[in-house]
Design brief:
This protein has 14 helices and 16 strands. By secondary structure, it is an alpha/beta fold. A hairpin with a 3-residue loop joins strand 15 and strand 16. Helix 3 crosses helix 7, helix 8 crosses helix 14 and helix 11 packs across helix 12. It is globular. The chain starts with 8 loop residues before the first strand and ends with a strand.
């Protein structure tokens, strides 16, 4: 419940590592050109039994030269992407050399579904062949689920709170939410928040065994298809997105450029299924976020959907959204990036903030025929749409029945 002592929380910087590009101009071009990053993964054909050969990878990713071998020793790919996105976000916020970052006033809230698979593989010979020959001092540091969060903290020297949100598809959105709460209730002045994920065929295998991964291998440009009648599952992606959150007072005092304001957040759990969303709790998380923000359905001008293109997920999410906010304009950015798991929540907030500022929103790709079992929402499709709104909702749902909803406003 809000009280008069709650502090306002604003976004003052953002950085991204994405299959669509590494800054807003590149990502905007891809969205407005309606170009997906999904491609056929030739190398995945070597995995016997895998049915999906589709993903949205970041090609030729590498850290800049100022990241020395010593500094990179504890970072696998997921941590490297998270640290680079954070470097870009701090620069965007004008905080790169600010002493506040290296103090107890700044905390980190960051998540990923898993650590680096390459590091996990170094433990395999021990369990299979009883040999520790591949394990070294950095193996666990690169493998652990909170590797991105702690590498960000160590690299930039933060000394405040640490939230490690290893909650799969809600890792990035929970990170923003917990960062928002830490600032709102006076625990921190600045928070580095977001999520990262590296692409691994083992993750594709998880969804493949659940018959939830797209197998349109011959037509990568035609999948995923969120909310479409002919969808056949999700496609995985990778990337990282970091947002810098500050108290409004702290941002104003230093003359920061404010990108948007986080005004509401809620998270809950279904308490029913591990892999199938519960419509009642999904509705409740959206309503709770709106209550926290002090807004009504009339205030919400756009909904950034989780929109994974899974058969059951799309139906439940669409009906829950319709019950809470009505037939609002809605689209899924995963149709461009694939499902980036731990990174999707923060990336989707960042991209939607930019679209809100420019008064347009991207359509869902490949949404040719809305599934009649989905709710009658105002699905943005076929082309970008001009919409002027001061408020949007961003939703994410994760394995384990974890749900999040964020309310973001124009300042």
């Amino acid at each position: 419940m809000n009280n008069n002592n709650d502090r306002r929380v604003v976004i003052t910087g953002a950085g991204v590592v994405s299959a669509l590009g590494d800054d807003w101009s590149q990502v905007k071009s891809a969205l407005q050109s309606m170009k997906s990053a999904v491609c056929y993964m030739e190398d995945w054909k070597k995995y016997d039994g895998l049915g999906t050969y589709l993903a949205a990878p970041i090609h030729d990713f590498a850290l800049p030269d100022h990241y020395t071998k010593k500094k990179k020793r504890s970072m696998g790919r997921v941590a490297q992407m998270g640290v680079l996105a954070t470097e870009r976000a701090l620069a965007d916020a004008g905080l790169t050399d600010d002493a506040v970052i290296r103090s107890s006033a700044t905390g980190v809230a960051y998540g990923s579904a898993t650590g680096s698979s390459e590091a996990a593989l170094e433990f395999a010979p021990m369990l299979e062949n009883f040999s520790t020959s591949r394990i070294n001092s950095s193996t666990y540091l690169r493998m652990m689920n909170h590797t991105a969060a702690v590498n960000i903290s160590v690299y930039f020297g933060t000394q405040g709170r640490m939230y490690t949100t290893s909650s799969a598809c809600t890792a990035g959105s929970q990170a923003i939410g917990y960062a928002y709460e830490a600032i709102k209730f006076g625990q921190q002045d600045v928070m580095i928040a977001g999520g990262a994920e590296e692409l691994c065929p083992s993750q594709a295998a998880v969804f493949d065994t659940l018959f939830a991964a797209s197998t349109k291998n011959d037509t990568p440009e035609a999948t995923p298809r969120p909310y479409d009648r002919d969808r056949d599952g999700l496609v995985l992606g990778e990337g990282a997105c970091t947002l810098i959150l500050e108290s409004y007072e702290h941002a104003k005092a230093r003359g920061a450029n404010i990108l948007a304001e986080v005004t509401g957040y809620a998270t809950n759990t279904d308490g029913a299924y591990l892999v199938k969303p519960n419509p009642e709790t999904v509705q409740r998380v959206m309503a709770s976020a709106m209550k926290d923000a002090g807004v009504t359905a009339d205030d919400i001008g756009y909904v950034s959907a989780h929109g994974t293109a899974t058969q059951h997920g799309d139906i439940v999410e669409s009906h829950a959204t319709f019950q809470v906010v009505g037939a609002k304009p809605i689209s899924s950015l995963k149709s461009y990036t694939g499902h980036t798991l731990g990174a999707c929540g923060s990336f989707e907030v960042w991209a939607t903030v930019n679209m809100m500022k420019e008064n347009w929103f991207a359509p869902t790709l490949n949404l040719d025929n809305v599934d009649p079992e989905c709710a009658p929402l105002d699905y943005i499709r076929q082309e970008c749409r001009e919409i002027k709104t001061d408020c949007f909702m961003s939703n994410n749902l994760a394995f384990g029945g974890i749900n999040t909803s964020l309310i973001i406003k124009r300042v």
